[in-house]
Predict the structure.
Amino acid sequence: MKQSLNQIPGPLRKVILFRFVTCGAALLMLLWVLLILRDWKFTIPCVAVAIVFFVAGLQLLADCTENNYITLKGVCSEVERTGFRKRIKSICIKCGELSVRFPNPDCYSKTLKTGDHLEIYVSCSAPVYEMDGYQVICNTLAIGKLP
């Protein structure tokens, strides 16, 4: 089991850890609400958040140990940003002969720029669409920057 956990790539480990840490934070909030407010109806959102993030973390962990993901490596050819806050709206990478666009990627790095070498992890069951000469994949598991 430990050997299969060590084979999970770093960006995916980071996402799994984030989901379990968020679950733990929701459980700590649950305890705080119970101890301070002593009212059960305020604990329902904490329980819901903890369950959602725990199940999401377990599902991603199971997919990673069973290698149910695809790794796309390529060079970032375009980064589209929002107007005011300069958050990433979509990225486009060049993988061999294909250009793949990822709208609303799950990366919050403001340092991502054109020419960066990226490693993007996508679920095997993610749908792929074609639009304007790009292959469009809407669901990403994790994005890592290669040196």
